[in-house]
Amino acid sequence: MSLVFENATLVDSLPKATSFFDAVSTVSQSSSSLSLLETYWAAWYHYMQNDVLATGLLFFLVHEVTYFGRSLPWYIIEKIPYFNKWKLQAEKTVSDKEQWECLKNLFISHFLVEAIPLWSFHPLAQKLGISITVPFPSWKTTVWQICLFFVLEDFQHYWTHRLMHYGPFYKYIHKQHHRYAAPFGVAAEYAHPIETMSLGFGTLGIPIIYVYYTRNLHLYTLSCWIILRLFQAVDAHSGYDFPWSLHHFLPFWSGADHHDMHHQYFVGNYASSFRWWDYFMDTEGGPEAKHAREERMKLKAEKLAKKTK
Ligand SMILES: [Zn+2]
Ligand SMILES: [Zn+2]
User: Fold this and answer.
1) Which residues form the Fatty acid hydroxylase domain (predicted)?
2) CA of 181 to the centre of ligand 2 (A)
3) Is residue 177, in this structure, part of any structural domain at all?
4) Which residues pair with 26 in a beta bridge?
5) What does the pLDDT read at residue 306?
6) With a cut of 50, which residues of the chain have pLDDT below it?
7) Is residue 6 domain-resident?
8) Is residue 77 part of a domain?
């Protein structure tokens, strides 16, 4: 029996569905006030008749479809010379063989490292009070919780990433992610298993801590957050900066040019989604930022020299 409906008697009264679409029509007939998305959500849990399996499979599919679905357009764009004028490191190309090597590694990571926490997530979600019921929370709640997760993940990412560039952490863990100096979409999750777990903590661990204290989170919100975070990560590795890219409209959004520079120069631009941590901690990457930093240091030294004269 699924807990997707708060009203348990409603679940008992619903006939078992023979197919997913049969479940959709059963749910829409019994609860006409639900939106289309809520109907599909409830029908999924009703059809599966096993919430642990339903959440596990849902998360697995959301991850695979979003990650590879978002990476595919970047692979196609790479093949079309017209888009070259917006490529950040236009002189560098990645062969299909290299991309295939990256993909093979990702499949291992997705099926072994990431699949276990995803498949076993439902019992933990239940314990923490993450809701799966319909109707969903208001869109305002969903939006501000996702914004909060973006800000907190960016903070966690910035400091963990800086640590990853320190001596042995870089040598034994983070170096793998830096294999590609000119990144491409699908390389976003190409990383050592320890780094994959650390990235997973930012994406799943932060909402877990949040719901532990607030007891207010819906699995639907969590799914939307995961989708948007995957979009951010794949796009940051795309290697393209278009005039219509988000950071041209939201100047504090990091985007591809921010992270591309990190891969190109190996230092600076450590944050994931926003530019503010690198700005305030003076760790902006690239030759321009380096030059500005040197100028500032020179000015400071001159001032100090004048004072001590
Ligand atoms: Zn790095
Ligand atoms: Zn990267």
Assistant:
1) 147-283
2) 9
3) yes
4) none
5) 85
6) none
7) no
8) yes
